[in-house]
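One example given next:
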Amino acid sequence: MNTVELLNLVNGGESSLIQFKREIRAKQSGDIAAEMVAMSNFEGGLIIIGVDDKTGDVIGLNFKEIETVNNLLFNWASNNIKPAITIFTETVPVEQKNVLVITVPKGIDKPYCDKDMVFWIKSAANKRRVSPEELRRLYQSVGKLYAERQPIEDSSIVDLDTQLFKNFYQARYQEPVNELELNRLLENLRLIKNNKLTLAAALLFGNNNQIILPEFHISVIWFWGNEFITGEYRSSRELTGHLNRQFEDALNFTLSTLRHVQAGRDFNSIGIPEIPKIVLAELIVNALIHRDYFINDSIKLFIFDNRIEIKSPGKLPNGLSVEDIKRGIQRRSRNVVLTSFANDILPYRGIGSGILKSLQLYPRIHFENNIAGEFFKVTIERELESHRQHESIILSTTD
């Protein structure tokens, strides 16, 4: 880091990724360790020492102070954080003074805690204790815990649509289900645990999800105009049931709200939707399969006159970025059981390939991976003028 880069950071002030410290003393071990824990559990960050955290003034450190602070920080990173982390330090000259910059990498062995077994996470420029829900998500982010494999309290095989499961099993494995073997098959497929349905089982084959999974549905609102105005909308729906039912209901409702264009067809024909059906299908399926099921919230499907928004709980999994998915890059899903079954139940191609295909068919799609807000949002533009340039593409998807 050079002087100009450092001054730009200082002028930008503190954030969830940057912290200033005027000085570091031995008695601050608990606070600094907690700060490094919070950064490791988040996206990493920088601790800049020698800058006043109240005014942003550069105070600087002398040679002896830099040596002492380095020793303290490396000791705390090794002994006051579990598991230990590796930090990097560098001295940057600025205004004839020296500032120490500590880089705390994004953790690869989450979750991290301090020596008192307290887990911390960043919250804007501050830090706070991790909630039980957030702790589960931290374990999930590194593949140590999967929401879909957790048993659902107060559930049993009675909450499973056994005929739906049998139809799936016979179609996939080309053999019928013996009623006496049903429990064993469900256990082998990780769909039942301790005589309770797993989350994956209920999502795929549940018949009572509005009771046992009240948060995991799609909330649909069709608004007047282009603004989110509470209480002013054309229609709303709460789409419940297993994933395939939610998918079909969401797709059909959305299609019913779209404009249809003739695109050279007979005047009396129904016409084709302004947004290709296959694009809507891909994006709705991806939301259902890849959302974070450790977050107790519904998927939001908002329909405006000029756009459609699909907002899924949870940021992109496993370090994926928006640019990655736009290029079709795929990594291990946070919901491995759902993805393993999805091809046989839903029109699913994978988080990378499905979005890549959608962009090829209809480029007017935008993505937001909100890390702080823990959500992923897809915005599909609606603009009649765009139909002309997409008519040939749309026609090819309906042949």
Remarks:
- DSSP finds 14 helices and 18 strands in the chain.
- The first helix runs from residue 3 to 12.
- Confidence is low (pLDDT under 50) at residues 385-395.
- The two ends are 56 Å apart (CA to CA).
